[in-house]
Structures are given as structure tokens and as C-alpha cells.
Amino acid sequence: xxxxxxxxxxxxxxxxxxxxxxxxxxxxPHYEQPIDLEKALKMALxxxxxxxxxxxxxxFDVEGRLGKDERExxxxxxxxxxxxxxxxxxxxxx
Length: 94
Prior knowledge:
Order of helices and strands: EEHHHHH
Low-confidence stretches: none
Number of strands: 2
Strand order of the largest sheet: 1-2
Number of helices: 5
């Protein structure tokens, strides 16, 4: 997470996802290898979805990272239940 408003607060999850997607969009043309921009933007927008239920764990929080993978897996399963079955099948094919 990044501090905003001159260090008064941390960015929220929506701002974090927006910042990442903007960085992908801005920097993709300058990368040494061709980038599938549509795929990269989709990845940027979904990369933190499990944190809706699992919470965010900073990289330096060693204790908080214990069990993080399992919490995020359960959170993703919970999110997938909200999607129509045909969308889940289509997404799994890509």
C-alpha cells in the first residue's frame, strides 16, 4: 500500500487496484517484450480480489503471512460462487 494525502492515510483497495492498472497501461508500451495489454489490465484488476474477504497482509508482516495462501484460496472460492457458472467455465479456459 502507498501513503496518500501527504502521508496522512494509506490508499484503500480500490485506489490500489486503480493505481496498478494505470501503471500497467502507462508502462506497457515501454517494456522490452510485447505485452498483451488487455490480459495485463485484467490481471491488474483482479489480483487483489481475494483480499476483499481475506484481508491484506503487508509483505513485511511475517506472522500475518502464515496461512495467507489458504485464506486467499477460500476467499477466491467464495467470490467465484457469486459468478454465473458459464463465466467461471469461460475464465478457466483462458
